[in-house]
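A further point concerns the way the authors explain their paired sequence and structure data. Nothing conveys this as quickly as seeing an actual entry. An entry of this sort, consisting of the sequence and the corresponding backbone structure tokens, reads as follows:
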Amino acid sequence: MPEVRERVDRRGAVGKGVLSAREVSPARVKETAAPFEAFPRDASGLRCEGVSLDVIARAIGTPCYVYSSAAIRDQYRRLREAMGKLDMRLHYSAKANSSIAILALLRELGAGLDIVSGGELFRALKAGYSGRDIVFSGVGKTEREMEEALRADVLLFNVESEQELQVLDAVAKRLGLVAPVAVRVNPEVLVDTPHPYTRTGEKGMKFGIPFDEALSVAKVAANLKNVHLLGLDMHVGSQISQFAPYEVGVQRLLHLRREIERDTKARLEYLDIGGGLAVTYDAESTVDIGHFGEVIGALVGGSGLRIILEPGRFLVGNAGVLLTRVLYRKRSGGKEFIIADAGMTDLLRPSHYNAFHRIEAVNPTGRTTVADVVGPICESGDFLALDRQIDDAQPGDLLAVQSTGAYGFVMSSNYNARPRPAEVLVDGTRFAVITRRETYDDLVRNDNNSPAWRNS
């Protein structure tokens, strides 16, 4: 199988692919009809739908995450409608936000799930999903996780190496079952995402099976007695705002499908094209998902395959804020510091990805300053914003860190022995705690100060 590799730059340009003689046209990104405004402002300050964020903070405390049900429903509807009449199901990527109430909300809308661990499988089942609603991805599945997923009767295992395939076959044989499998292929499309850590479809990544090995691995899968080869899978990365990578990647998988069906007795049913659609964190243009639907429809509409799309951040990213209260103001080395009660243990993305999140005062002072917004964690890398033009917030003021519905709470930790924050869901004019704030007792629940020693 020929190796194919193109560089897609920020303008969306891409070279000719070997699978098609045509030039893949740059995907356009434009302003579309505005999504639902989850966090409007009125005379009382910033709200989530019909509930004052100040009211939530006083009732629940800070830091806490607040999510808009209406914003999630709106994003799901917009993406589902953009796919038109394609035989497609949206499988929400649970790693973006795995709160059971969020999973249940999406289940009610008709979503399936994409999971990457046994823990996410456990959460999915608690949220009311059946195994057939679930695709199990992930590069390092353990035998225990495979067994749990087989017993749950998941729709597909997205397999990422030949060794994983062999282990899955052995686990399925031990249970007297057959594992439904899709081969995850690394499409080897290079994309300029906002951070190197969000690229998954480049050559040499840990994810997926190298493109030039995919056919041979598929042949192995087709000949294993306790594996049923049913599909192909890819994921090009996260925060993708141009569609050329999807075009090239899908073309390659369709070509690979023809080779697999030519060389084996397998007849594939599923094509999983991953997720990764971008959301706005600042003043970026919104992704034209209507055009995305047209691109995908033109590529796969006549394929006879069932299409799986795995949106995560796109559905929940802009549906959440992190509320944090200012503790202190400080000046050091000619710089202003706003010290808040939320830090990198609550929101890791600024420190880990150098990610930008807008920060607004719930009730602005009318004055601004340039400051670092930092947390209480004993690390120099603990910050929410650096050198930011921001409201001149004073101790006691409430700040809302925007676009934290994805990869916020799920990446939180207990570093510095800090309890993790609460999560709150808003629906119209009502709100509820969906994850209670951890207590000090929670921090030591699994500790054992009288260990039972064992001899070697």
Observations:
- The chain has a mean pLDDT of 89.
- The longest strand covers residues 320-332.
- The CA atoms of residues 14 and 326 lie 46 Å apart.
